[in-house]
Design goal:
Elements: H1 3-10, E1 15-19, E2 26-30, E3 33-40, H2 43-74
Antiparallel strand pairs: 1-2, 2-3
Length: 77
């Protein structure tokens, strides 16, 4: 089994949509990731915005982890 196939089988992103009755806009988060929220005029737009939020957060987290690791490595023990 290739890595990509295994990854797809192990990670499940289950969207949870709610629609604002007044504005008609959708809000979505993935089960297991309630703090990341996307908004949009349609379910598809909301989920695309959610993916952007997740990718941004992961990129920022990656840089923070790298910074901490480098500082820990070079700091005197």
């Amino acid at each position: 089994m290739e890595f990509e196939d295994k990854l797809l089988n192990e990670i499940k992103f289950i969207p949870v949509f709610t629609q604002d009755k007044i504005s008609g806009y959708y809000e979505v988060n993935y089960q297991g990731f309630p703090t990341f929220i996307g908004y949009g005029k349609s379910e598809q737009e909301a989920e695309l915005n959610l993916l952007e939020v997740l990718l941004t957060a992961l990129g920022e987290r990656k840089e923070k982890i790298r910074e901490i690791s480098i500082n820990d490595y070079y700091s005197p023990q």
